[in-house]
Fold this protein.
Amino acid sequence: MKNRALLAAGACAVGAALAFKSPRPAPTPTPPAAPVSAASQPLFDGKTLKGWKRLGGTADYKVENGAIVGTTVMNSGNTFLVTEKEYGDFVLELDIMLESPVSNSGVQTRSHFDSPQQPGKVYGRQVEIDPSARSWSGGVYDEARRQWLYPLDLNPQAKTAYKAGQYNHVKIECIGAEMKTWLNNVPVAYVVDPVDPKGFIGLQVHGITTKEQEGKKVYFKNLTLTTTGLKPSAFPADVYVVNFVPNYLTPYEQQHGWKLLYDGKTAAGWRSAKGDAFPVGGWKTEGGTMTVQASEGKEAANVGDIVTEDQYRAFDLSFEYKLTPGANSGVKYFVTLAEKTEGSAIGLEYQVLDDALHPDAKLGRDGNRTLASLYDLKKADKPARFIHPIGEWNVGRVVVYPDNRVEHYLNGAKVLEYRRGSPEFLELVAQSKYKVWPNFGVAPAGHLLLQDHGNEVSFRSLKIKELK
């Protein structure tokens, strides 16, 4: 899945979009869901490729011993064997085996071919099969469009589900806007995405670039599809949901403790960092976004920052943001409002910045003022493919555990982690602008803050789950 350009998902009404090495516990398999009311139907007859066609590349597909066998070919891009029919809601189950650990494959769902933006290419949501050390099998990738939607940084317990050198059982559930995946009965990914309510199903042979990868086989068998009598299958309580419906929580999220911090319409739950009321002017809460207006790029010189009325100790915070060219802002946490400052209120900050155009990206130490960094303290290690262009929505996430471990994410990738109050943290503070404030960043609780840095920046889908 290389060279896939970011593609805006049309004008969809609801929107598209440290180093701690603690041992990773083995995933706990869950029993298969109860049978649906209608019997599953085979999607492959075990003998021929009737009902299927090849798209996108020149890799070879044939039937051998009751399995579809795809073989890599040099000088071919990604190749897909796709169903001639399109499907909306369904449960798909199949077994997949990769001959080589240097191979890669996937299963397309509700996908399409040959758009004006991607001529000659298959595009749509893909369930990844990844035998590499990265171990993202069962994650969700948007082929030839938005790239990674659900990398397994979001569910690391599922990274051990894939079994090399043998058939792996994949289950994919697409009902309404919700998509869930399982690998060998281990729950892996949960995506809510209103894009593409129907499309074809496809089996991928990945494009290759080296002789080492040439002639490698991928096996697919036991493909069954259910399209009627569908009921959503249960997921365990602590799986993070990537939800691209703005300002909306699924019943699953509500059941497991998530709350919206912005209702999509009003400023309820927020106030000025300078007083008890929400600012008059300067911030707009309409059209499904909370937007700070431009004011010559001066920090807190217009109406200033806004903060949550409530304070939080340990939490999982998720938010979407959209930058204008050259813009600067931030999402701060553990804001006590006790520090004396003429600019923005003080707190630990997830930096929100146009790294290419704003000069702050070149200040600080070793890049610690760039996008998604712990501002002025620790740089975010973010692959370029996880940075969406200016003017598009990005998803930020901050997780603060009860033991003071903290993680920053950008569009699903974990880019930074540290521990509040640790010797490493205190040394970073001593080298930063924050050294003048005693006990900076170690308050037991604090407000959340959206920063007014004088540039237009929009926020939406702010949601939080308090952790115990």
